[in-house]
Design goal:
Length: about 110
């Protein structure tokens, strides 16, 4: 029996981008790996790609490089499946990024 893909099962893919906290020794909020592991595990079958958390980012228009550029600096991402945008938002709402004074951005990916 062939396994159904996300689209066949009526599910859509969403990219969740985390902004704010960092990994490592920079000042300010940092990612708590145990908290993130528990959150990713709790997503269950909705988690398509755990993605990665970031040590820092580069803002290309300004060419600033650093571990913590601003509260909106990219700090990680993951890919999930959900029935609709509202469900994707519900999945993201329990993310540890909010405990780290960060935020999320959710993008509905095209097939």
């Amino acid at each position: 029996m062939r396994k159904q893909g996300a689209k066949e099962a009526g599910m859509e893919k969403f990219l969740i981008v985390f902004r704010g906290a960092t990994v490592g020794e920079s000042e300010g909020p940092r990612h708590n790996p145990l908290q993130w592991d528990a959150w990713f595990d709790g997503l269950g079958a909705a988690l398509v790609d755990r993605g990665a958390l970031s040590h820092g980012s580069v803002e290309v228009p300004t060419r600033l490089i650093g571990p913590k550029l601003s509260s909106s600096a990219l700090s990680g991402y993951c890919l999930v499946t959900a029935a609709d945008f509202n469900e994707a938002v519900r999945l993201a709402e329990s993310s540890p990024i909010f405990d780290e004074q960060g935020s999320v951005e959710i993008a509905h990916l095209m097939a």
